[in-house]
Design goal:
It is built from seven helices and eleven strands. It has helices spanning about 1-20, 105-115, 135-145, 155-165, 170-180, 225-235, 250-255, and strands at about 30, 50-55, 75, 95-100, 120-125, 150, 155, 185, 190-195, 240-245, 265-270. Helix 2 (about 105-115) links the parallel strand 4 and strand 5.
């Protein structure tokens, strides 16, 4: 363990010399990749560190990052990490995070650790055991909505919709009801109730027996073509608009000067499909 810590400290010192940093406050980037490191000493002295490469090592523990709040890019791929709980959640400024090709097994715990990263846009988790979960990609997309590029593939709007249906079907039904003007009974998902704006339920015509398509005696599924038009019209969403002629509404001053009872407003309501 002491030898591993010494190797990490030596690697850091070499990088500081190569980059010509004069003080710890000047250090904004450290490249410690591909050096066979099993552990790294605390980097808390580098308070302005923004870019850190530790990929292709043998890292199993991330406690050395506990005070590097300014990190925006972190490359931890190709290591031996099995758990990141409690190690990264304080990195709220992180925009790029590479964790692929490690040994992360628990999808829920891993995603929970990353939830507070509101600026996270690029994330790699492939080649971890957790990535073999059948709902892995949609789960990550739902709980980490800021991510735009997941496992080198752009997140699409269709994937976001599928993730919502998978992880929060109740909210998905509510959003669908708002979009199509219907109210959803959330007590039993999948049951829709007609819009409250509809004063009367639409009357559906039943197709007469013997009038199906392909019948030699009829070219339309109804004996009367107007019935077909009515059926098509009544299946559309009902819309209602109301308007008032405000020019006939008395102002506050006119109301005070007049002692007459006001006539009820005339409201024009139009419904159409």
């Amino acid at each position: 363990m002491a030898a591993a810590a010494t190797a990490g400290a030596q690697a850091i010192e070499n990088q500081l010399k190569i980059c010509g940093y004069k003080s710890n406050m000047d250090v904004t980037a450290l490249y410690l990749a591909r050096q066979g490191l099993g552990s790294i000493p605390s980097l808390s002295q580098f308070r302005r560190l923004k870019y850190l490469w530790i990929n292709n090592n043998k890292i199993q523990d991330l406690t050395f990052l506990i005070k590097n709040y300014c990190l925006t890019e972190l490359y931890l791929n190709n290591n031996e990490l099995t758990d990141i709980s409690g190690a990264l959640k304080h990195l709220c400024s992180l925009q790029i995070l590479f964790l692929h090709n490690n040994e992360l097994k628990k999808l829920g715990k891993t995603v929970k650790e990353l939830k507070g990263m509101r600026s996270l846009q690029t994330l790699n988790l492939f080649q971890n055991p957790l990535a073999y979960d059948p709902d892995y990609r949609l789960y990550v997309i739902y709980f980490l909505p800021s991510v735009q590029l997941l496992d080198r593939k752009l997140v699409t709007q269709r994937e976001r919709e599928s993730a919502l249906h998978l992880c929060n079907p109740k909210r998905a039904w509510i959003m669908q009801s708002i979009a199509f003007g219907t109210r959803v009974d959330t007590s039993s998902p999948g049951t829709t109730v007609g819009s409250s704006r509809c004063t009367q339920p639409a009357t559906r015509l039943i197709m007469p027996s013997g009038c199906e398509f392909g019948n030699n005696t009829n070219k339309v599924p109804f004996e009367n073509p107007e019935d077909a038009v009515l059926v098509r019209a009544t299946t559309r969403s009902l819309m209602e608009y109301s308007s008032v002629d405000w020019s006939k509404v008395a102002t506050c001053q006119e109301r005070r000067l007049k002692n007459e009872a006001e006539e009820p407003l005339q409201k024009l309501t139009v419904q159409f499909r």
